[in-house]
UniProtKB/TrEMBL annotation:
Hydrolase in keyword set: no
Organism domain of life: Bacteria
Designated name of the protein: 2Fe-2S iron-sulfur cluster protein
GO MF, one annotated term: iron-sulfur cluster binding
Keyword GTP-binding: no
InterPro entries: 2Fe-2S-bd_N (IPR042204), 2Fe-2S_ferredoxin-like_sf (IPR036010)
Keyword set, alphabetical order: Oxidoreductase
């Protein structure tokens, strides 16, 4: 998985917690916006579209576009509306992998 990000954090990083993305561990800032934290960690693809599998990633960051859908412990949710918590189990539905 890619770990270099084009996104920079404007805040000093707080304590990090371990979450699991597709079975691989990631250390993200506790309480951070999940979509922003994943982008900051270099995750560029959150899901694949149902028809073609085309990669999708956060677009609006306010819950209107649904491009940041991700499975959180078996339930499909919008990552931009969630906060990072210790031990989250995340799965990218239909994601073709990081580009």
């Amino acid at each position: 998985m890619k770990t270099v990000s084009t996104f920079l954090s404007l805040e000093a990083p707080g304590p990090r917690v371990r979450v699991w993305l597709d079975g691989a561990p990631l250390h993200l800032p506790r309480g951070a916006n999940l979509a922003a934290a994943l982008l900051g960690a270099g995750v560029n693809t959150f899901r694949g579209t149902a028809c073609s599998g085309a990669p999708r990633a956060p677009y609006c960051m306010m819950g209107a576009c649904f491009d940041c859908m991700i499975e959180v412990e078996g339930e499909t949710r919008q990552a931009c509306l969630l906060e990072v918590a210790e031990g989250m189990r995340l799965t990218r539905p239909g994601a073709p992998g990081d580009a």
